[in-house]
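Sharing a chain and its predicted structure for anyone who wants a worked example. Both blocks are below, sequence first, tokens second.
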Amino acid sequence: MLRVFSRATTNRAVGIDISSTTVKLLELSRLRDHYRVESFGVVAIPPEVVIERDIIRPDLLGEAIKELLDKTSCKAQQAITAVSGSQAIIKVVSMPAGLSDEDLEVQLALEADQYIPYPINEVALDFEVLGPSTEKTNEIDVWWLPAVYKLFRLELKPWRLRALSPL
């Protein structure tokens, strides 16, 4: 089952993919353990909107997202998108097995300065446990996704144009 629906408050979610030339949308619904594509669409964006994976013109991106949502008659209220850019980091780290999510979060925050070249108070820390470590016994591998807060503030602006809430 797609884990993203475990965070959702409804059985519909829309995935939005932003590239340097297009915005793509895929709306899924869930009924028990089956998924259904409800809508799909693509719109082109001007070249000055996204440069080298960084969103430069969130206003134009928001207009493109609104156009795409209207064009596809998307009914989902929760959006899923990837965070990209030079200020997003993806890393697999090993942690002691048996830690609760809260303890993992504390441990990752304590070790953040080893991996993140930004002040910890400017970084959002998210993680997903992958399972037992492939290299170390009594440890787990954790997919760690720290990103600079200003990136989230920039990424969230377009969603507000259509009252979508990020998952």
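Comments welcome. The longest helix spans residues 58-72.
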